[in-house]
Amino acid sequence: MSKHERWNTLLELLAASGKVEVEEAATTLAVSAATIRRDLDELAEQQLLVRTRGGAVAHGVSYELPLRYKSARHASEKQRIAAATADLVAPGEVVGLNGGTTTTEVARALALRFASGRPEGPGAVAAGPALTVVTNALNIAGELAVRPQIKIVTTGGVARPQTYELVGPLTVGVLNEVVLDVVVLGVDGVDPELGVMAHQEDEASISRLFAERSSRVVVVTDSSKMGRRAFARICGLDRIDLLVTDTGISAEAVEQLTEAGVEVLTV
SS3 of 22, please? Predict the structure, then answer.
């Protein structure tokens, strides 16, 4: 197991229980306790956790894994969600994407779907980009910028190192000047009463503005986020047109969303 894989697993354990014990982690990862101690020390240097005697605890009250360590969580579900979401996008549309692991997979699925330009079929025309993507996520912009068939528009703003998202007044200024056909939002929590949420208030406000600038709002999330609350509210369920998730979602959650007027697509 590589160092990156060990770190990913340690941070996963930390996100699940709020703490990690050296001996238990060493057994789980089948490595020595000394290796775990070195890993925890290095993660503490990056301010990803707080070292304690015999282990580590989460850094802060609201723990948020950096994007680079969340990519392996529910990977297959996110790829299925992304593929289904990309199929909903019509040629020539303007698509908004906020940051996150699921929206990153959606960006990759869109790049594959429009790899040869505009797909043939209803609505296809010869001129113009196959797709226009507006995003405040630096990693998504970096992946799509090399795709000549996709016009990529990035917002300005201040970059958050954990999610690679641009936030702040400069981001707002750009989004206020664009009109989107559809926005695809990744979220940290979905609650039948409060709506959809994010860990950080600055990211939530940008996601809310994305929704306000779009004709259709699609939320993409794996079923583990259902019923979960996060610190900052993005918008209520009444603003969401479609939620794409995996088959792990409960029948009760589907019923609650449907009653709120949200169409649910499970893949």
Answer: helix
**Is pLDDT at 62 greater than 60 in this prediction?**
no
Quickly count: other Cβ atoms within 10 Å of residue 59's Cβ. 16
Mapped onto helix, strand or coil, the DSSP state of residue 258 is: helix
CA distances from 248 to 42, 64, 226, 239 (A): 35, 22, 10, 24
- Measure the CA–CA gap between 97 and 99, rounded to whole angstroms: 7
Please return the burial class of 108, using the count of CB atoms within 10 Å of its CB with bins 0-12, 13-18 and 19+. Answer: middle
CA distance 198 to 244: 17
So what's the pLDDT on residue 118? 62
Bridge partner residues of 132 (DSSP): 94, 151
* Cβ atoms 133, 122 nearer than 8 A: no
Strand pairing partners for 153?
A: 134
For residue 28, what is the DSSP state? H
Cα(176)–Cα(41) distance, rounded to whole angstroms? 44
pTM for the full model? 0.76
CA distances from 139 to 21, 154, 245 (A): 33, 11, 22
Q: CA of 226: how far to CAs of 16, 146, 191, 202, 210, in Å?
A: 16, 34, 7, 22, 21
Is residue 120 over pLDDT 90? Answer: no
- Per-residue pLDDT at 45: 85
Question: 82 or 127: whose pLDDT is higher?
Answer: 82
Name residue 19's beta-bridge partners: 57
Quote the strand ranges of 127-262, DSSP E: 131-135, 150-154, 158-159, 166-167, 180-186, 189-191, 195-198, 214-220, 232-235, 242-245
